[in-house]
Amino acid sequence: MHGAHIRGRGWGRNRLCAALALAALICYPLGVTLPVLKLERMGFVNEASIWAGSIEMLSQGQWFVGLIVLVCSVVIPVLKLAGLFVLASRPRMIGRHHQSRMYRWIEIAGRWGMIDVLLVALLVAAVKLGDLVEVHAGPGVAAFATCVLLSLLASAVFDPHAIWETRDE
User: Fold this and answer.
1) Cβ density class 134-168: b for 16+ within 10 Å, e for less
2) Rounded distance, CA 116 to CA 23, Å?
3) Which of 37, 58, 82, 160 places its Cα 20 to 30 Å from the Cα of 52?
4) Which CATH architecture best describes the domain 2-163?
């Protein structure tokens, strides 16, 4: 009886995790497509989203930085959130061995998905040239921050033990 209580609590936490991961996945497209930076330089205004910025870097031959931004800000977070959603809501869709591997990957990937905050800080520092350039946050910052917060909350409430427990339904 005591084990059922613990199992129920774990599954409840994982249902909350699935809801938070789904909410993050829903707001994620706004976070990467809306402008996150507005640069004003000598009367010219340029707005950049995470998606457009990474594609622009790649098209200009800046492969290293463009790939880092694309992988760490777009690919890894989407895969992490989708993985959390599947593990939390439908663990039986995949075998137990793959569940374990997926969970370990999510834990490792979560660390690399946060590198985008550092990249934005470096970008602002690199382009902020005194009075020559003004940098303002765009509407994508709020959407992206919301997505990051939901992702962190989903990771925090996830109970990995619940996915391996047998559940009688």
Assistant:
1) eeeebebbebbebbbebbebbbebbbbebbeeeee
2) 20
3) 82
4) Up-down Bundle (1.20)
pLDDT tens series, the chain, 169 aa: 344 434 455 567 888 999 999 999 999 999 889 988 777 777 788 888 888 888 888 888 888 888 888 888 888 889 999 989 988 887 667 777 778 788 888 888 777 765 555 556 555 555 555 566 677 778 888 888 888 889 889 988 988 877 666 444 4
Rounded to whole angstroms, the Cα distance separating 36 from 50 reads 7
Q: Can you tell me the distance from the alpha carbon of 85 to that of 135, in angstroms, rounded to the nearest whole number?
A: 36
Q: 18-29: buried (b, 16+ CB within 10 Å) or exposed (e) per residue? A: bbbbbbbbebbe
Q: Quick check: helix, strand or coil at residue 35?
A: coil
Task: Give the phi and the psi of residue 37 in degrees, each rounded to 5.
Answer: -130, 140
Rounded to a whole number of angstroms, the distance between the first and last alpha carbons of the chain is: 16
Q: At 156, list the tokens.
A: 């925090």
H or E segment at 143? helix 140-157
Reference 47, options 163, 169, 136; nearest CA is 136
| Residue pair 32/74 in contact by the 8 Å Cβ criterion | yes
